[in-house]
Backbone:
């Protein structure tokens, strides 16, 4: 598991470094994840002992994913007065962003459907 955790952290560091050097507008961990995926695909035969180690480390992290939300929950509790004072603004932003997200999702679906030339088969 230590080898897998080291691989995950190495690729996160590699992704963060690439984003820092190139100025890409993509989060470093996402770049690292893509690099990890590509390297696992490219070196599939020679990494027989590393792949299970990475899977074990990823499974352990995902199994404890709920713990990563504890700091956010503590922040909300610690700043509860601010949350109460700005409750209306927070609710408005949540509603507007949800409506905007739904509209963009529908627009994207319709655009892709037109692009692919799919016809409605329901009659």
Residues:
């Amino acid at each position: 598991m230590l080898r897998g955790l080291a691989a995950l952290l190495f690729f996160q560091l590699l992704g963060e470094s690439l984003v820092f050097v190139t100025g890409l507008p993509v989060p470093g961990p996402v770049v690292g994840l893509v690099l990890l995926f590509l390297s696992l695909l490219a070196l599939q035969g020679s990494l027989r002992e590393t792949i299970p180690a990475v899977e074990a480390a990823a499974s352990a992290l995902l199994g404890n994913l709920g713990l990563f939300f504890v700091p956010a929950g503590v922040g909300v509790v610690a700043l509860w007065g601010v949350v109460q004072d700005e409750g209306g603004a927070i609710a408005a932003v949540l509603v507007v962003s949800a409506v905007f997200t739904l509209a963009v999702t529908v627009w994207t679906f319709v655009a892709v459907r037109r692009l692919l030339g799919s016809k409605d088969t329901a009659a």
